[in-house]
C-alpha cells in the first residue's frame, strides 16, 4: 500500500499487456480498474462487470454520466458496440461456466502455491468477499496486482497465507511495483523486475522462495 | 381485452405499508445502491418495522438504498456478499448488534433465483477450500464435490424497475437491473417501485424481463437517490 500514482500506473500498464483482442476480462476495484486505460488494442476485448454488463466502455465525459449505468464499483461507465445487459445470476453464470479469460484483482497476501487472501482480516476488517471468490476460482487466468509489501514493509508474497483464503492455488501471475512473478507448478518464478529495483531487492522483500528466470527482464 | 381497475396492481406507497412488519424477511434488489427502490425503503422507515432479516447483494451506502435501514437499526440479520461500502453495517456487526452472513456474490444471486424458480436449492463449488465451506452440507455429483446451498425466499420482496404495466410486467434499465429480476421472483409478496407506469399492452412482450405474475403491487417512484453513490466519491 501507500503506492504513488506512477507506481500504480506502471503496474496497470504491465497488466494490460496480458490482454489481447477477443478476450473476456473482469477488472477489480483499485489498480485493476486502471488497466483499461493502457490496452493498446481494445478492439474486441469485452469487459465484464458483476453488476451486469458484458462490453463495458470507458468513463463518460463529465456531464454525460447516466445514473443507471455504472461499473461494479459504482462509478459511471459506458458501453461498447455489441454490449449486453443481464441480471446478476447470469453475470456469475458466465463466470462459473468458465468463459472469463482473465480476472485482475487486488490481494492482501499471495502464497507460493498461488493461494490468494483478499477479503477478510478476522476481527479487524470484514468487508465481505463480493464476487472475488467466484472470479478467482473460475477465471481461466488470475492476475494479482498489489504492492509488494505492506505499509509496514512486510512481504505480501509469502510461503503460506495467514489470512483466510479467497481461493486455493488460484493465482497465475503477480504484478507489483517491484516485479512480475509467475506462479508455476514448482513454485514462484521472477520473470521481470521493475525499474529502478534490482533482483536482490525483490528477493529481500519476498517472503517465499523465488526462482529467478535466467532471462529476467527489466521494465522501465 | 384490458386489465380493468379490479385487476390492476397499481397502488400507493401508503397502501403497501400494511405488508411491512416486525421480524419480517425482506429481500431488496440493487447493487451498491444502484437499482434499489428508494421510495419503498422510505415507506418502510416511516412505517416503523424493525428486527428485519434483510437479503440483499450488499449493504449499500449509509444513506442510500437498503443501507438506510441498517443505519436506522431496523436490520437484525443481513445476508449479503459484502458490506464494504457501508461502514455503519461494519460497526454494528463488530458491536454484535447486526448479524451478517456472507455468501459469494454469484452464489447469493443463484440462491435467490432458485427461490423464485421454485427449487429447493443449488449445488455450487465456489468457495470450496475456503471458510465459505464451513458448516455446509456437501454432495458428490458425477465425481465432483459441491456444497448444497438452500434456496432463499422472503416474506416481502422490493424491487426497482424502469417500466411496469398494470399486470406487473417489468422492464429494467441497464445496470439498474442487477439483482432486481431475481428478487422479484422470490418474494411471497413482491412490491415494485417503477419509474414509469405504462398502460397494458404498451410493453413489447419480447422485451419484458419479469413476467407480471411474480408481481403483487406496483407503486410510482418518487425519484431515486443513488446518483450520489459516485457523485459524492468524485468530490472526495
Automatic annotation (TrEMBL), chain A:
<dbReference type="InterPro" id="IPR037171">
    <property type="entry name" value="NagB/RpiA_transferase-like"/>
</dbReference>
<comment type="similarity">
    <text>Belongs to the 3-oxoacid CoA-transferase subunit B family.</text>
</comment>
<dbReference type="InterPro" id="IPR004165">
    <property type="entry name" value="CoA_trans_fam_I"/>
</dbReference>
<dbReference type="GO" id="GO:0008260">
    <property type="term" value="F:succinyl-CoA:3-oxo-acid CoA-transferase activity"/>
</dbReference>
<keyword id="KW-0808">Transferase</keyword>
<protein>
    <submittedName>
        <fullName>3-oxoacid CoA-transferase subunit B</fullName>
    </submittedName>
</protein>
<dbReference type="InterPro" id="IPR012791">
    <property type="entry name" value="3-oxoacid_CoA-transf_B"/>
</dbReference>
<dbReference type="Pfam" id="PF01144">
    <property type="entry name" value="CoA_trans"/>
</dbReference>
TrEMBL record, chain B:
<protein>
    <submittedName>
        <fullName>CoA transferase subunit A</fullName>
    </submittedName>
</protein>
<dbReference type="GO" id="GO:0008410">
    <property type="term" value="F:CoA-transferase activity"/>
</dbReference>
<dbReference type="InterPro" id="IPR037171">
    <property type="entry name" value="NagB/RpiA_transferase-like"/>
</dbReference>
<dbReference type="InterPro" id="IPR004165">
    <property type="entry name" value="CoA_trans_fam_I"/>
</dbReference>
<dbReference type="InterPro" id="IPR012792">
    <property type="entry name" value="3-oxoacid_CoA-transf_A"/>
</dbReference>
<keyword id="KW-0808">Transferase</keyword>
<dbReference type="Pfam" id="PF01144">
    <property type="entry name" value="CoA_trans"/>
</dbReference>
